[in-house]
Amino acid sequence: MKELLEFLGFVALVQGAMGLVHGFTHWHVGLVQRLGFLDGYEVHASAALVVLAFALFAAAGSRGSG
Questions:
Q1: Phi, psi of 41 (to 5 degrees)
Q2: pLDDT tens for residues 45-58?
Q3: By CB atoms within 10 Å of each CB, which of 4, 9, 18, 37 scores lowest?
């Protein structure tokens, strides 16, 4: 379970970071910019993904080695 949480945290962190890069530089990277229902809220969704990633890492850390 710890590995799954770490993997999901990594994916959320990468997608959030790429969404923020897109939001500030307009490079076409990441999946957040491709979701139509997030039009106008890409930066907010990307920041939420970064926060979610840290929460997943904290949850994985609290799970210990099991």
A1: -120, 20
A2: 999 999 999 999 99
A3: 37
